[in-house]
Amino acid sequence: MGIDSEKDLETVRKEYAGRVDYPWGYMRSTFSGKGISLITYHIKENSKMSINIGIGSLIRFVKGEGVIHTTKNIIYGKNTVFDQPGNVDITGHKSTEFELISRSE
Q: Could you tell me the keywords of this UniProt record (predicted)?
């Protein structure tokens, strides 16, 4: 992919700003302030990742399909909300985007 202009370069910079890449996809801190934070995660198709969900936090799936692995397997899709605290594994059968919404004291 080539960048043809300063405008294109700025668009690419904005897209990658704050992004941290991992083998399973990437995460980006979207918002943080006044006791709440929002982190957006993108999981590649057929990839698996682990996440710790704190007490009072929740995950909202924006797009994709897959399985949340806890004591039982939970199938998720668009607009699924998951709020059980602890360590969970998430497998994306399709490319997945979700938001981790956390409260901090």
A: Transferase
